[in-house]
Amino acid sequence: MTTARQTKAQPSGDHVVDGERRRGRGARSNQTGRFEADVHEAFDDGWESLGLLEAFKTEVFEDTAKSIIARNDSPDISFDRSINPYRGCEHGCIYCYARPSHCYLGHSAGLDFETKLYAKSNAATLLAKELAKPGYKPQTIALGANTDPYQPIERERRITRSILEVLAQTNHPVGIITKSALVARDIDILQPMAERGIAKVAVSITSLDRRVARAMEPRAATPPRRLDTVRRLSEAGIPVTVMVAPIIPGLTDHEIEPILEAARDAGARDAGYVLLRLPLEIKDLFREWLREEFPDRAERVISLLQSMHGGRDYVAQFGIRQRGTGPYASQIAMRFKLAKKRLGLGKGRVALRNDLFRKPNSRGEQLELL
């Protein structure tokens, strides 16, 4: 096997990685990140050495962050701050809008994103220090707005749980976004927080079809387990929203009503949606995946998506990027609205409290969990 170095603008050959090497992963390729000067590509040098390459294995690196609360001023989302305990995500969702961010670390948005993970082990300590700063004013922190806070490595690392402990101790409001059943592990923390009006959870359900879900999100919880998680959280008194995100036109949009009905039956109080977004590297990664998994629908899916973005793959404009425009986008919006109304979703929308917050001690040390 030989590694070729080429200019960034001129990658060559078929970039799809052998199926055995990427078994259980979402991306089909691992092209060099857009900020790198050279493209590195493995090719067979005549000794058939490509077949000897090892499978992609998950590696976890320590991310010694200096701050933990990320701020944003986007009008498209309901929160202005978030915490992401991990960079990269082993769930391997092919559509994940966080993939391009891995290029800032010198990695690929493809297989690197789901196999080279970074854990912010000092997150809880940093959080306590930031909450203790003079002038800090509490607003809901979104936990997992970029990558999933309950991806598989959380079972051992328990960074997300340590963050929740700090938020519980300080009565700080938190909204969790996940597609993992592991969030139910922390019901013992979330239930008392919900009783005080300072916690809620959003569970992402993209499809009820196990085959579609497994192809799109290879290492995430199955649809039945996600619905069971909604049920367990709801029975514990924790407000749950189901996010149908992303909706993929021509592939999953016919499931809008069944997903919402199943979510309501499981105890969800509200629901939301986001259309598929294909910025930067995702547009090629998604096409590779679509051609392999659903070749009979690939052309129609892309055509419908482009019809909602003025003939392009993606429009980054606020107010449009998550909803699209045009007749098909309007139809999806109306269907979602009518289904929610029929099922009674959204009537009990929860606004979290900010008035209970109490600062941790000034040294940022963690208190004992009450």
Word description of this protein:
The chain has helices spanning 111-115, 123-131, 154-157, 159-169, 187-195, 210-216, 223-235, 256-266, 282-293, 298-307, 327-343, and strands at residues 2-7, 38-43, 59-62, 70-71, 81-83, 86-87, 116-119, 141-143, 174-178, 199-204, 240-247, 270-275. With 370 residues, the chain is an alpha/beta fold. The chain is globular, with a radius of gyration of 21 Å. The strands form three sheets. The chain has a seven-stranded mixed sheet with strand order 4-5-8-9-10-11-12, covered by helices on one side. A three-stranded mixed sheet has the order 3-7-6. Strands 1-2 form a two-stranded antiparallel ribbon. Helix content is 29%, strand content 15%. The chain contains eleven helices and twelve strands. Helix 2 packs parallel to helix 4 (159-169) and helix 8 (256-266) packs parallel to helix 11. Helix 5 (187-195) links the parallel strand 9 (174-178) and strand 10.
Descriptive labels:
11 helices; 370 residues; 29% helix; globular; seven-stranded mixed sheet; alpha/beta
